[in-house]
Amino acid sequence: MDWISPRTLKRLGMLNMNQRNVNYIARYNERSSYPLVDNKLKTKLVVAEYGVKTPRLLQVVKHQHEISHFREMAEGLAGFAIKPAKGSGGKGITVITGRDEDYFVKASGARVGAPVLERHLTNILAGLYSLAGTPDVAIVENLVESAPSLARYSHQGVPDIRIVVFQGYPVMAMLRLATTASDGKANLHQGAVGVGLDIGSGKSLNAVQFNRPITLHPDTGLALENIDINDWEEMLEMASRCYEATGLGYMGVDLVVDANEGPLLLELNARPGLAIQMANGRGLLPRLRAVESLKRPHFTPRERANYAMETFASL
Amino acid sequence: MTSPSRLPFYIAVLLLISAGISLAVWRHIELGIPWLTGEQRPVWMIEARVDFDGADEPVVASLNIPEQPPGFRILTEQAASPGYGFSIIDKSGSRRAEWTKREVSGPQTLYFKAQFIPDPGAQPTQPSQQPRTQRLFWEEPQATAVREILSQAEARSSTPESMTRELIRLMQPDTRVQNTTLLVSEENYLPLLVNMLNHSGIPARTADGLKLEDARRRQQLIPFLQIYNGERWLTLNPKTAAQGVPEDILLWRQGSESLLDVVGGDNSEISFSMLRQTIPALQLAAMQSDGKGLGFLSFYELPIEEQSMFRMLLLLPLGALVVAFMRIVIGIRTSGTFMPVLIAVAFVQTTLVPGLIAFLSVVSIGLAMRGYLSSLNLLLVSRISALIILVIFITAGLSVFGYQMGFNTGMTVTFFPMVIIAWTIERMSILWEEEGGQEVLVQGSGSLFVAICAYLLMSAPLAGHLTFNFPELHFAILGLILLMGQYTGYKLTELKRFTPMKAYD
Fold it and tell me: How many domains does chain A have?
């Protein structure tokens, strides 16, 4: 067995689970703000007021009888995604990428009929995918078409960018790439690849899968060391803006880069995981402490993003 | 944002823990509740037997019984004497057991039994007012002899104690001079001593003690001398002048004039028999707890049924402590936060191995059935409800099957909380679908491991003993759990998880 000593971890500034829960989530995240991020519909509406773009909302299904409108709405659409508003960890998300006569084609290539999707909507409304099984709302969103420059790294699924935002400062970022093991999902604990991104430039640092360092994507075989994210500053500013929208002091912001619309906000997370540190090869603590010790915080998202780019790259 | 000072919190937790522990220590000392199980305490059972012949008239037999003998505490008292009225009478500094009967003839036997616990700290209550000395009128030539001896003793002493010692020494056969020989005879030695001391102004009286030896019968009382030194009564051996009551002597009579008075009977005599018994210290504490200052803080007064329920309930905090430790400090993942505690409680009732077998078989059969439910695409509530009914079917089936096969262990399945098992199966099954079998294995074995740890702690006899008899120790457990809630260090599993970070050091 191979162990790392607590002293080494401390020297690296690694944030741990207990510390994250006690010193950051419990202290900086208002309980009352949680529904904002746990409900994707609410998130969409609230960040829109702050100028943060999200995938276009096509339909909201709140009641059983509204499901009958789904077919008309879906008639002219090529691709869309059905999501439970309160789902977590990608549960209950069905992505339709195209049409094949009367059938809908799922991301995996399987063809399903409209009744299947309608039953899926019923299940969502009944709370099958929501936390604690409470009744839920289904949202239908425009399909995100990932920018080709990033999409080629991911096996199925859309690659997304997780940015940890602390007190409005983007402190750490990583690119998450789906793999066969993760079943097309961008969840690290399910086997997605995490690629650490330099907060100053948006260039890739290290990559991990299942907490182990890797250099090539296990499915696409592409080298992960020279990825460069476009519009990096804009994305950081976008992430930073979510702080004003939600008031959550410590959160994870998940962005995707759409081929047509540019960066879009996918969802927010009030309890972002710790694996981002391993993807970056850096601990979060020095950056979090730097923000905590700021005497005069910056007021605009742009100032905060610039400060983060200048300061945190070296921490 | 400034972080509020944690100091008040730590002080509060410290207070909580120390309050719990000191209360337990206090009750241990005050009530004698033992720290360990199975501790035994000696108890002396002493039986006084009174014999007399009835003379066809109403009888009152009055026996002096101990009241606060030094070095002992009275645990129980009872009288056995068919047909007699019995009562214990407290009057003017002496307790007497009184038997009464209208018509008595022929030989009679009365018994009085009492249990005494050795307790070095027990002391007789102090007399509220100064005892008086009674001066006796002595006839010549005794008067001169007494004066002589007393002045001799007085010349060589300074305190009532030393005066008494000197006097006793002077009255011993080997030091006797003419004066003493004149006064002392074998029968009147002790009364004479008492009279002379009273004459010299030192309050003195006789007392009777019993030498405690295991399984003795027909024991007689040994006379002792007691003098009052201005503060309290001191007990001396009238022959050797040794001060204090030896440990194996129980003073049966002190302060009272007579040991036994029988009115309406002849040939009365008394004898004692004794037995050394041991009783569990816990039982002793329970017997003594009522009426004492801290006795209300215990569960001994509750009905037995409630007591056994509390025995179980009071173990739960230990399980919670184990879960908190395992999850916060070690970092073991469990399915459901406190499911392991409930499983551990069931294990306490079933014992470990049969419980494990029963639990694993119910859960695995349940998982197989849940697989079918899953394909039905039911809603959550009805799925869980169906699962609960299935779990009951499985347990019933296992019990009946086990019983028919001759395994009684099959019956223990019924101890498991059905709803909890149903939820466990549901969670495991969802986990299986979403994260794969490996995660089910990790969380399942994590839960079982924590459950077994909690079981081992909860089933330890000492744990049950301490939690039930010192419920205040739960304050300390609460304090520990609160402290753990503030632990921000690395979990043990994180040291493993973050190992690849070595490369960046």
Answer: 2
Interface A-B, measured as beta-carbon pairs within 8 A, has a size of 89
Question: DSSP letters of B189-248?
Answer: HHHHHHHHHHHTT--EEEEEEEE--TTEEEE--EEEEEEE-SSSEEEE-TTT--BS--TT
A119: containing domain:
57-142
Question: What is the biggest distance separating any 2 CA atoms in chain B, rounded to whole angstroms?
Answer: 120
Residues B99, B230, single domain; the answer is yes
What range defines the domain where residue B247 resides?
Answer: 39-132+203-297
CA dihedral for A292, A293, A295, A300, sign (positive or negative): negative
With contacts defined as CB-CB under 8 Å, which chain B residues touch A15? none
Q: Among B435, B442, B495, B496, pick the best mutation site for testing chain A contact (most A Cβ within 10 A).
A: B495
CB B221, CB B211: distance < 8 Å? no
Q: What is the pTM assigned to this prediction?
A: 0.73
3-state helix, strand, coil in chain B (%, to 5): 50, 20, 30
* pLDDT value of position A172: 95
Mean pLDDT computed over B346-355: 85
Q: Would you say residue B4 has pLDDT above 70?
A: no
Q: Do β-strands A212-214 and A138-142 pair in parallel, antiparallel, or remain unpaired?
A: unpaired
pLDDT of B1 > 60? The answer is: no
Is residue A237 one of the residues assigned to a domain? yes
pLDDT surpassing 80 at residue A237:
yes
Q: Residue A291: what pLDDT?
A: 94
Query: What interface predicted TM-score (ipTM) does this complex get?
Result: 0.82
- Would the CB atoms of B498 and A5 count as touching at under 8 Å? no
- CA Rg value for chain A: 20
